[in-house]
Protein 1
Amino acid sequence: MDAKHLSVAERLLDWYDRNHRSLPWRSPPGAPPPDPYRVWLSEVMLQQTQVATVRPYFLDWTARWPSFAALAAAADADVMAAWAGLGYYARARNLLACARVVAARGALPDTEDGLRALPGIGDYTAAAIAAIAFGRRAVVVDANVERVVSRLFAIGAPLPAARPAIRAATDTITPDDRAGDFAQAMMDLGSMVCKVRGPRCLLCPLRDDCTAFRAGTPEAFPVKAAKKAKPQRFGTLFWAERDGRVLLVRRPDKGLLGGMRALPTGPWVDSDPGMEGAPFAADWRSIGLVRHGFTHFDLACTVMVADAGDEPMQGEWWPVAEIADAGLPTLFARAIAVVEGMR
Ligand code: SF4
């Protein structure tokens, strides 16, 4: 067919066949779909996390737990520790809950509705798994697709109100065949060509279809609603050491970083909580500050250290020399860097 008469999907799939990213959870273009376990795992890991960060986690994880059954049989604490550093820890708890449901029922459901009923699987993830693992036609819209489609159609409403219009526009270009390849092609185009800043329009297979390109304004889309500043909260982290070991606690299952191993901390509140939450009275010394951005607030924590002496207290005494193996979330890993910097 004359290139001018190809549909958006045909142009994009042709580009994907030659330019796709090779990723450990993918099948090559046109090949049979990958193992649904690997598709599901990668999609959950990729929620709010970059490909480069996810890749080593995915490889370690699949070597250790290669199937739903293997993951379902894992100890909760091992799974939470293996997830440390990926952030958004509710995902790890849901991942384990989902693996146990799937292992009990025998297989992952192959429809969007069936997938959406599982823990941790929302509209986007259900659509992505249905398309990529099961070849079903599904409208898959992640942040990359949002950007490409809002530019292709010059959708002027601001996000997030524009989402229904973006989804409807994506529906008009989604093909019946090669649905999984199409979804991955859109993701690759958004990541490699239709970039947030400096889109490489002259290399883009959809240039002739793109309203924003013709208008010379690709970077004006997607239109974003003005961002509200995140509130600032404050906290204190406590490093209590004795005989080469540091005191660690397990955070409550509910709430931020739930179920994760952690340094003891007080509350995270609007003004400095001082020594509230200290595991024992001692000569605590402040050695620095760590900052971490959560979804709904920014946190600044003072790091306090003390010698624990013979204080009786609840928790685990973890060897300081092996602290990297404790599976601590990023906030606490930053505090450790401060402690190590003072040694
Ligand atoms: Fe994005 Fe430019 Fe391609 Fe339009 S032409 S889809 S703005 S890269």
Protein 2
Amino acid sequence: MAQRKANTLLIEGGHRLQGTVAVSGSKNATLGAMAAALLVPEDCVLQNVPVIGDVDQMAEVLRSLGATVEWTGRNVLRINAAELHSSTPAIEFAGTLRGSFLVMGALLGRLGEASCPQPGGDVIGQRPIDVHLSGFAALGAEISRDGERFIAHASKPLEGATIFADYPSVLGTQNLMLAAATARGRTRIVNAAAEPEVQGTAQMLIRMGARISGAGTHTIEVEGVERLRGCEFEIIPDRLEAGTYAVASALTQGEVEVRGACPQHLESLTHKLREAGVQIEIQGDVLWARGVPELRPLTIQALPYPGLATDLQALVAVLLTQAHGVSYVHERVFDNRLLYAGELRKMGADVVTTGTTTAIISGPTSLHGARVQALDVRAGAALILAGLAAVSGRSEVTDVYHVDRGYERLDEKLRSLGAKIERV
Ligand code: EPU
């Protein structure tokens, strides 16, 4: 279980990162696998699970439904959903965790009904759930709303269908695979999300006996099976964590070897880092990133996979404060994910936002230490990296619990690379 830790990081910047760091399992893939475990009465044993706040919170969501969830080893989580006593997760755990909405598809598949609160999560823009709900309806569920809760109820077994997703929603696609895995007949999800985390959930379902093809492309087919079974499953490496260390290395003119990564999940990032001049080498599951004294400016666009991940957008923006020239950052996934720009300005960055989706960054600027707030998990990580690059003063990053929700021991791992960073 993730320990409750002090909530502020003090960072003395200006130190080169150097050495080797190992990547943990993917946060978002874990949430999908945990939801999938609800589909069967047998044990599901997940390996390479990151010990982070969001996993603990998802465990509480599952427990509130009657599942047993326990750590049986370092990074090993056993889930047993033999005795589900509810189709309604506790609002105090589900209401603030976006990924908890995945239990909706799993419960609908297993019990024929589910009722979940409007999912909360980070403040990064509008986060509708029409793709999830209209997909459930296409499979034959009736959708209704009771105050804060959405209810999906199937009065007869779910029937496979062709579902056109208006947007390739990551959680939406996973939710529909979870519901369709045991529906009668074939489901086609058109305009599906192709993110590696979607592929991860599909792989877990396949291990459980599901018949799914096309995960990783924009058309996924699910041939419903009568029943699934428990399984052991290893969570994929966290591409966003791996990307964080690569950017941190580039930003501090460091030389970092990121081990246990899946570099093909990071092609859009490594492509842009190389364009900026960063030296990148890839061999098997090792990604090596070396910073250079003079970075070139970039235009980046955060897009659905395989485009540059929106979750890496703030991190790359911090790097661009050190590029020689004007860079443009376009956020095309969420409509309000540049809120960190105000915090970066407190550290001396020259960042101008036009509207809520474009930032113009002029560099290089000498960042200085400041007291800044982690607004969400990714923006928080970006500010920590900015702190590492600050050449004067000390930075104080508050509300670090956001970062602890998504990163396993980020501060410890950065310290092992030579960062001067402590919790206070
Ligand atoms: N959208 C719709 N309709 C829907 C659902 C989404 O229009 O029904 C739109 C949203 O408005 C948004 C875009 O689709 O503009 C992307 O939303 P998506 O549904 O793909 O995001 P999500 O599934 O809610 C997951 C990750 C996010 C990550 C996004 C995009 C989890 C738990 N969350 O969210 O991760 O940023 O996909 O890749 O898997 C994070 O880890 O910090 C995080 C926020």
Protein 3
Amino acid sequence: MNTADARRIGDELEAVGGMAVPHLEDADIVILYSCVVRHAAQETVHNELIRVGQAKRQRPSMRVALAGCMVEDDTVELARRYPFIDRFLSPKTDLPVRDQVVDLLDLDERYRVDPSDAERVGLVSQPVTISQGCNRRCTYCVIPFRRGDERSRHPREILREVRSLGQRGAKEVVLLGQIVDRYGKDIGTTLGQLLAEASEVDEIARIRFLTSYPVDFDGPLMEAVATLPKVCEDVNLPVQAGDDAVLRRMARGYKTMFYERLVDEMRSVIPRLSLSTDIIVGFCGELEAQFENTLALLERVRFDVVHVAMYSPRPGTASARLWPDDVPQEEKKRRLHEVERVQSGIAGEINGRVVGTTQDVLVEGQRKGKWFGRTRNNKLLFFSSDRDLAGLVVPVEATGASSWSLQGQLVDPVPTRIIPHAPRIAS
Ligand code: SAH
């Protein structure tokens, strides 16, 4: 989401005559999009801010803004700690990006130039924020406190952004929301409807969306994924834990049985669905037996991808206030590695079954002399070709697999399904 929001403000800066520079030291304007979902992320932002502070000392005219979830309601403490920050862009206020830029640069709006010649986008796949904030209060999560209540962007505005990205070389959009499957509920539309409308944008070949919340994933959305050809059969559905007592303390609002039934239904409605999930290990009071229930759930559900994180108490959240962070760090690490070990076996098997099939791959670029791209199921696939294939959808036969990626061979000849106007990718 930070990447998507940063691109939007970058576009806007370009529209008023700005230009991206590769080195921080050369920038007149620096806007840092911050994440504080876990302590480690916050440390990364802190280190980056130190670097920005040093650069500004060398170049006092530099204007610095901090955006993203580090920006609290009260910025006094942040301003004291990082006195070189000129502006705070709160993720709670929905000032249009253009106004943010006009404000940040003290521009007179008359100076605004036409953005029609905005540069081509660098990446084939582009994230697009479609809703802000979150109304849930998962006890461990700081995001709602920083991003505020849920509000959907108007479809017209989103579609304008998707069209612009398509015209500038993007082939795939990833629609983003904290609870993306609730998109539109506050403005009388639905994610299914938006997926159908975004499918009309000719230049865009593929559409993905994340993150979905289990209780909000309804039948019509399943139908939309199953029937809209551009929408990939790939869903990110965080379960967080495989134990009902832990889920209750997380205030997730469902039990494991509900989750597993939902997955069964999704798999019956959406053929060839790939599923990824998020897991938190070492949540307050998580007993060994409860952790093992999570491992058992992974074995039963068999996700394609699992993102696992160690619980990290966040300021202002219910879990940080109510319960001690009582699973020792070493034990959290052990549980994390245990999840990774179990999952890598499962992913290896799932990917192994792809070997021998031909997959439509949207080619993203080159790495170490090989082309790489993603299958509809979001699997990374590497293969060789002398041709420039960036931005094309090409058929590739999978010939090898690991837990993390696939290798393959281009099926010749590349059929006429190719999409025109391939963007060039710097490798
Ligand atoms: N709105 C999204 C979550 C975005 S945060 C959702 O509900 O899925 C991404 C992931 O970070 C979460 O799914 C969760 O697994 C993890 N996370 C959030 N808060 C955390 C915390 N305090 N400690 C560890 N992991 C956390």
Protein 4
Amino acid sequence: MVSMKSDTGTMRIFKADKNGIQAAAEKIRQGELIAFATETVYGLGGDASNDRAVAAIYEAKGRPSFNPLIIHVPSLAIAREYVEFTPLAERLAQKFWPGALTLVLPRRKGCPVSLLASAGLDTLAIRVPGHRLALEFLTACDRPIAAPSANPSGGISPTTVHHVASGLEGRIAGILDGGSCAIGVESTVVGFHEGSPVLLRPGGISLELLESCSGPVRIHQGDGSTPSPGMLQSHYAPNAAVRLNATSKMPGEAYIAFGRDYDQIADVNLSLTGDLTEAASLLFSALHLMDEMNFSRIAVGPIPDIGLGRAINDRLRRAAAPRDNRQVVNQ
Ligand code: TXA
Ligand code: MG
């Protein structure tokens, strides 16, 4: 096991082998916090059935406690113990789990998940991640794991161990190292209103793919019908100011391009070939890199609003939103 010294203590890095997984799971069972790789982003994991561990997650992230957490489990069978599935929810879970889909469903009676994890709501957001290491870790923990993205609240989500360590060093017990996250944006969050699916957050499963299984999905517009407390207007924010749909680069700006248009002015290109999957996987790394290079202004070129482009543009709009205005837009 490798250790990285920090100002505030020592961050343990748990290797992706049997011993590493067991040691990290043991920390979880003791009520400590472990960041772990999923296929979307790194999660900041804690025992969801332990009120103190859940409170520690909010504390470590500086996250407002009205913003509920996603519960991670290793199988659909275990998810059924915690939430009530409708036939449509069951179909979506069968099709997309393990994978980048989070379902918001009614808690079952006797569900052991801390009420703090769901911010007092009578629903739970739940998913089975599509990452072999995450599944082995969840199985070893042998309890539901609450895991928001492993970054300080409002900041850029982490897709590498290095991102997690630079944001949370000294605040958590360690990181289970699964390398870089393949998808790179968070899961798609789907709730239900009077039985019909509602897109609460675009993410790793595209709307098009979702609808191919569920039929038409309503896009949540903040009309109060299905609460999505976490959709803060300012989020995913780098230190730098962000300008969107930029077709030129102003003096002092760093430029993030997509495709061949504007590549000649790019400091970083998310995908020269215009591949949205590649772009999603590099988005947060590009924003972290700009911060590390101390740019104070970032311009981002246009990105098509289809497929994974929807999730990319959603994150970029929040990264560009006024910072003094971290208000809830979809409540
Ligand atoms: O890919 C992901 O989803 C990652 C990885 C670690 O699994 N997790 C993640 O968690 O992005 P977080 O906490 O950063 O985002 C959870 C989102 C928030 O927008 C939150 O408000 C919403 O899910 N959410 C959680 N519980 C909810 C509920 N009961 N009803 C409605 N929205 C809920
Ligand atoms: Mg997050």
